[in-house]
Amino acid sequence: MSADRAKRGDALADKLARIGVLRDEDLVLHLPLRYEDHTRIVPLGAVRAGATAQTEGVVASAQIQYRPRRQLVCLLRAPDGGDATLALRFFSFYPSHQKALVPGTRVRVYGDVRDGPYGPEIVHPQFHAVGDDAPLPDRLTPVYPTTAGLAQDRLRKAVARAIASDPARTAEVLPEAFLRRSGLVAFRDAIAFLHAPPPRLAPAAARALVERTHPAWTRIKFDELLAQQLSLKAHRKARAARRAPVLTGTGALSRALLERVGFRLTAAQERVWREIAADLRRSVPMQRLLQGDVGSGKTVIAALAALQAIESGRQVAFMAPTEILAEQHYRKLAAWLAGVGVEIAWLSGSLPAKARRKAREGLASGAVRFAIGTHALFQEGVAMPGLGLAIIDEQHRFGVAQRLALRDRGLADAHQLMMSATPIPRTLAMTFYADLDVSVLDEMPPGRTPVATRLVSEKRRGEIIEWVGRMCREGRQAYWVCPLIEESEKLELQTAVALHAELVATWSDSAAGAAGAAGAAGAGGPARAGTPITVGLVHGRMKPDDKAAAMDAFARGETSVLVATTVIEVGVDVPNASIMVIEHAERFGLAQLHQLRGRVGRGAAQSTCVLLFEDPLTATAKARLKVVYESNDGFEIARQDLAIRGPGEFLGARQSGVPLLRFADLEHDVELIERARDAAAELLQSAPAAAARHLDRWLGGRQEFIKA
Ligand code: ADP
Ligand code: MG
Question: Given 30, 66, 93, 553, which is the most exposed site by the fewest CB atoms within 10 A?
Answer without folding.
Answer: 66
